[in-house]
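Task: sequence design from structure.
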């Protein structure tokens, strides 16, 4: 995920308008993409360009403001001296993100799953933050407020259900949001000794996403080494001539170096012999 960020002033508050997106951090752009594991499939099918262009706005784009704020907070690029104000910002950002996603045609259940994953990622980031202000200003997780009936393992339950759901663009977009949370550091109930399970989930996600979206054609198809095998050096007389040419070139360089060195030494001796 590529992020371009600008520091938020603690005095500048965004104006919440129902017809516009919440701009928590001005001029923030998050480009979301799904990184696929090349080991999963050896011969992926290419996704036609027309099919790509006909897809609606990506679900991850609707949550880009939240994801950017969480990443900045997680890596100490954003201070939150007033946790209650920051919490209100994030609550409103979630509301507007969910509203935008539903206006783009996503079903409310998919929006709920994606939103729960992002808010869970936020709560985990706050819990791991070294900002002491959060100890008093973030007493209860925001997940409990927005999703009061969700169990602790909802993230991975939802992920397993999505992985077993029939392929569709909405399924792939929702999985992508959860995938982004994992790639950015969210662990949830797998925070302790869950490395192998997490690796298995990532492999399954890669396989599912590749099956749903297919492999996209490269923007620069000729960047890699050509598939044709590299021909070995010619054998016989041509090879011997090449080796001889290399040896002669090296010998000429050595001779030129020695002659130049002797000339410099001779000139230096002549200069030192001049009367002072």
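Answer:
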């Amino acid at each position: 995920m590529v992020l371009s960020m600008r520091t938020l002033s603690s005095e500048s508050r965004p104006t919440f308008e129902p017809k516009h997106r919440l701009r928590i951090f001005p001029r923030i752009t998050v480009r979301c993409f799904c990184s696929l594991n090349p080991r999963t499939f050896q011969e992926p099918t290419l996704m036609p360009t027309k099919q790509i262009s006909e897809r609606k706005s990506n679900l991850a784009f609707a949550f880009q403001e939240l994801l950017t704020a969480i990443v900045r907070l997680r890596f100490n690029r954003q201070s939150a001296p007033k946790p209650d104000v920051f919490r209100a910002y994030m609550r409103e950002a979630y509301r507007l993100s969910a509203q935008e996603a539903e206006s783009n045609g996503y079903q409310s259940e998919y929006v709920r799953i994606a939103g729960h994953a992002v808010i869970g990622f936020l709560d985990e980031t706050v819990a791991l933050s070294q900002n002491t202000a959060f100890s008093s200003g973030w007493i209860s997780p925001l997940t409990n407020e927005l999703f009061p009936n969700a169990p602790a393992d909802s993230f991975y339950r939802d992920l397993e259900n999505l992985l077993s759901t029939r392929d569709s663009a909405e399924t792939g977009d929702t999985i992508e949001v959860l995938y982004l949370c994992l790639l950015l550091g969210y662990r949830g109930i797998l925070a302790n000794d869950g490395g192998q399970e997490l690796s298995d989930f990532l492999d399954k996600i890669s396989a599912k996403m590749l099956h749903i979206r297919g492999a996209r054609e490269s923007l620069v198809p000729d960047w890699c080494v050509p598939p044709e095998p590299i021909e070995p050096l010619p054998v016989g007389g041509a090879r011997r001539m090449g080796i001889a040419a290399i040896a002669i070139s090296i010998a000429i360089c050595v001779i030129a170096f020695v002659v130049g060195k002797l000339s410099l030494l001779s000139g230096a001796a002549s200069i030192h012999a001049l009367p002072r």
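The first strand starts at residue 2 and ends at 4.
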